[in-house]
């Protein structure tokens, strides 16, 4: 580790910390329809929109109607994406005459973008027309993110309301989140990115002759508008194959900083929004603190592993030491990393993108050192709660909080309660469904893939690392993350189908469980806070929460990780290659 | 209940259509319009011209193998490297024999090209493929390694070439963001101009 790298990581964290409160307060005002802006500007526009939508904003839904609306909206989204991708060859804005995709790729991509995963079995510049990128994929980048935020709003209302089944209106939440949060932020970010050199045009690919006389083809397209929302909405689907490592997608250290902050900005801000909504910002900061502890620990761990480098290269006459001055060199493990980002920027991104269910990359995780690549997987195994996906990260962490008060309650012999709601058997069952669904899908499908021939042909790398590629794929799909150990050849009928099903199940089953949980909580009375109430905004509880997150994630996946990155770590250090 | 479901289905279709027009067409079109007016060069790929011909992009690396040029990093994009229509890293893992073989071969090649002793250490970026396969930069350390060869081939003094390298070296942004780096295309174009 170097002092510059450490300071860089801290700068990144403090920028996010500084933005959490203002953004969280703004989002609170938008969701509650409060404040000057909401009353004078947003309100009148919303009234027109809701009339067109046939929505009565005053009518609230119970959890079942909310869930059904969410499912219907997602199903229509999926159908539209599938149709556009299949029909791509006959649609406009396709200067490269790219043909319609195969059915299994269209299914996988539709499932992927509707579920806010943005796993990509394809290379953007070689597969997707501008029309598909914009009308199919950019739209889902927005609305799938808004759906996630809508669901966490419902869960928070479950805590704040009592003896009711009214949990808000899906259409109101979806619209407000899209129009007043995601769209303005994306527009600003997109233009900032263009100022750094991210491309935004409708030209056909440019063929040029290089200085030495070779042919070079530049893929073009409306990239900035999609990249902005793919970062802000924890989507992560790149415009180009190599995602935010591609210079046209992420050209400078400054564009990189903007994009990296954007990954966890909204998830971080939502913790403050949560605190405001439950009437105690300390509760929000407690959740923020628990996320931050795991985030910083992971970032320093990955940074250290990558800066130390690959021991194999040391023996081959390669210098991996960090140097400054006229002979400056980033040092470290630079396979699959860009010079303009170096090690620290890559580590920050790798931990942010996997902690936050984003899945975009600015370096290739497949080429990370074994332990450097372990943390991204581990982050996803924790359930995407280290800031997490927009909305989904917070509801995941709140479920962990419920489990924590339950365990703490058992230890001290008290009825568990969180934010004034008693946690009973029904709530715990729903929390169980929430976690077991994703864990089971990740592990069972990995087991299937390493057992059948269609799965075994996938990995690029041999040995333990090849297994890690498969484990990473099903981890990423189950966690709705979307990043990959990119060596895996995933654009096959087997992987497209298995991963597509996994993404859908692991998005919508837990979401329905959350909505049901909100319904159960809202029905209850509030219990008054007494001297015997376990405080959930204390450092002690934050530490306990972190422990529960690590133990639940760790114990479930430790055996699976042992076979992959941990074995590989010992092999590499013993000089055994495969 | 059923009546509500039909109502919500109607709203689903209207809302989805409206969001598609707004977010899928109007938003990218508006951003493109503004970008093309405010940052036209940037929005089109920061292309670099010489004698009126486009020879590359300031942001994207390209192959250089001639002895009179600075060489870029290895690239896994496309069959021959630096294919800006097929970005890709190598995706070789840390325990990969193929990676070790490729690095060993590149180390030997660079030592020979630069006339270095057989135990000379090579900066890591010189023998590792970037994430995109399109990295436009090399480290100042790798540039320095190439100064002697380029100067010799061009009949320039090493100090002149070294000064030029410094000129095309970018430092970290705000001291912390990113790493010091040399833009290979800009440097080689400047050499050709001398």
Give a quick precis of the structure.
Chain A is mainly α and 578 residues long. Chain A is built from 19 helices and five strands.
Explain how this protein is built.
- The complex is a heterodimer of chains A (578) and B (194).
- Chain A contains 19 helices and 5 strands.
- Chain A has 578 residues and is an all-alpha fold.
- In chain A, the strands form 2 sheets. Chain A has a two-stranded antiparallel sheet with strand order 1-2. A two-stranded antiparallel ribbon of chain A has the order 4-5.
- In chain A, helix 9 (253-277) packs parallel to helix 12.
- Chain A is globular.
- The model of chain A has no long low-confidence stretch (mean pLDDT 96).
- Chain B is mostly helical and 194 residues long.
- Chain B folds into 2 domains: 2-41; 46-193, no CATH class.
- Chain B is built from 6 helices and 6 strands, in the order H-H-E-E-H-E-E-H-H-E-E-H.
- Chain B has helices at residues 2-38, 40-43, 97-113, 140-154, 158-167, 184-193, and strands at 47-50, 53-57, 122-123, 137-138, 169-170, 181-183.
- In chain B, the strands form 2 sheets. Chain B has a 3-stranded antiparallel beta sheet with strand order 4-6-5.
- In chain B, a hairpin with a 2-residue loop joins strand 1 and strand 2.
- In chain B, helix 4 (140-154) crosses helix 5.
- The longest helix of chain B is centred in the N-terminal third of the chain and has 37 residues, at 2-38.
- Chain B starts with a helix and ends with a helix.
- The chains are: A mainly alpha (578), B mainly alpha (194).
- At the A-B interface, helix 1, helix 3, helix 6, helix 7 and strand 1 of A face helix 1, strand 2, helix 3, strand 3 and strand 4 of B.
């Amino acid at each position: 580790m170097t002092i510059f790298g450490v300071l860089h990581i801290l700068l990144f964290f403090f920028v996010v910390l500084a933005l959490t409160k203002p953004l969280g307060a703004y989002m609170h005002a938008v969701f509650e329809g409060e404040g000057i802006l909401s009353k004078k500007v947003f309100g009148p526009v919303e009234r027109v929109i809701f009339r067109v939508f046939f929505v009565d904003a005053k009518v609230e839904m119970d959890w079942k109607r909310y869930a059904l609306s969410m499912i219907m909206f997602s199903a229509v989204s999926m159908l539209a994406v599938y149709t556009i991708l299949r029909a791509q060859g006959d649609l406009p804005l396709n200067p490269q005459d790219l043909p319609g995709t195969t059915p299994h790729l269209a299914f996988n991509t539709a499932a992927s973008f509707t579920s806010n995963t943005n796993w990509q079995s394809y290379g953007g510049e070689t597969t997707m027309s501008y029309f598909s990128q914009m009308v199919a994929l950019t739209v889902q980048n927005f609305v799938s993110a808004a759906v996630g935020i809508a669901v966490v709003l419902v869960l928070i209302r479950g805590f704040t309301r009592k003896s009711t089944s009214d949990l808000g209106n899906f259409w109101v939440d979806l619209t407000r989140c899209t129009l007043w949060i995601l769209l303005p932020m994306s527009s600003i970010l997109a233009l900032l990115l263009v100022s750094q050199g991210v491309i935004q045009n409708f030209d056909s690919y440019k063929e040029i002759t290089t200085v030495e006389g070779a042919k070079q083809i530049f893929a073009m397209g409306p990239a900035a508008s999609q990249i902005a929302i793919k970062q802000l909405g924890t989507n992560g689907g790149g415009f180009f194959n190599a995602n935010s490592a591609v210079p046209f997608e992420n050209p400078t250290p400054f564009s990189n900083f903007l994009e990296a902050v954007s990954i966890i900005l909204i998830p971080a801000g939502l913790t403050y929004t949560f605190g405001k909504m439950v009437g105690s910002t300390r509760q929000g900061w407690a959740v923020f603190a628990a996320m931050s502890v795991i985030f910083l620990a992971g970032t320093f761990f990955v940074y250290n592993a990558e800066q130390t480098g690959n021991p194999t290269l040391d023996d081959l006459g390669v210098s991996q030491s960090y140097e400054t001055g006229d002979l400056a060199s980033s040092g470290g493990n630079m396979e699959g990393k860009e010079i303009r980002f170096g090690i620290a920027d890559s580590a920050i991104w790798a931990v942010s993108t996997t902690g936050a269910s984003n899945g975009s990359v600015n370096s290739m995780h497949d080429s990370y050192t074994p332990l450097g690549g372990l943390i991204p997987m581990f982050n996803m195994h924790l359930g995407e709660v280290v800031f997490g996906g927009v909305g989904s990260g917070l509801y995941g962490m709140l479920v962990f909080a419920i489990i924590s008060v339950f365990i703490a309650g058992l230890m001290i012999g008290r009825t568990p309660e969180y934010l004034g709601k008693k946690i009973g058997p029904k709530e715990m069952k729903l929390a169980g469904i929430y976690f077991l669904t994703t864990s089971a899908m990740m592990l069972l499908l990995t087991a299937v893939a390493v057992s059948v021939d269609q799965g075994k042909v996938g990995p690029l790398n041999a040995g333990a690392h090849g297994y890690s590629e498969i484990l990473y794929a099903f981890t990423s799909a189950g966690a709705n993350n979307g990043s990959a150990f990119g060596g895996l050849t995933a654009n096959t009928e087997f992987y497209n189908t298995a991963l597509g099903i996994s993404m859908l199940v692991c998005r919508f089953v837990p979401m329905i469980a959350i909505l049901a949980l909100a319904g159960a909580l809202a029905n209850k009375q509030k219990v008054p806070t007494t001297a015997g109430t376990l405080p959930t905004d204390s450092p002690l509880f934050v530490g306990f929460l972190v422990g529960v997150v690590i133990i639940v994630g760790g114990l479930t996946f430790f055996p699976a990780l042992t076979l992959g990155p941990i074995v590989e770590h010992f092999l590499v250090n013993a000089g055994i290659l495969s | 209940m059923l009546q509500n479901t039909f109502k919500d289905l109607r709203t689903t279709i209207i809302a989805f259509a409206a969001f598609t027009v707004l977010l899928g067409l109007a938003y990218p079109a508006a951003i493109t319009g503004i970008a093309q007016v405010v940052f036209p060069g940037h929005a089109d790929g920061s292309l670099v011209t010489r004698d009126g011909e486009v020879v590359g992009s300031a942001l994207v690396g390209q192959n250089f193998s001639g002895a009179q040029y600075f060489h870029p990093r290895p690239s896994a994009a496309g069959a021959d490297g630096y294919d800006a229509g097929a970005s890709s890293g190598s995706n070789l893992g840390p325990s990969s024999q193929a990676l070790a073989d490729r690095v060993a071969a590149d180390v030997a090649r660079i030592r020979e090209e630069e006339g270095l002793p057989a135990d000379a250490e090579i900066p890591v970026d010189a023998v590792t493929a970037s994430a995109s396969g399109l990295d436009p930069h090399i480290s100042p350390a790798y540039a320095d390694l190439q100064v002697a060869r380029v100067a010799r081939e061009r009949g320039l003094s090493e100090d002149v070439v070294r000064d030029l390298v410094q000129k095309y070296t970018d430092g970290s942004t705000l001291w912390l963001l990113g790493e010091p780096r040399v833009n290979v295309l800009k440097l080689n174009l400047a050499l050709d101009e001398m």
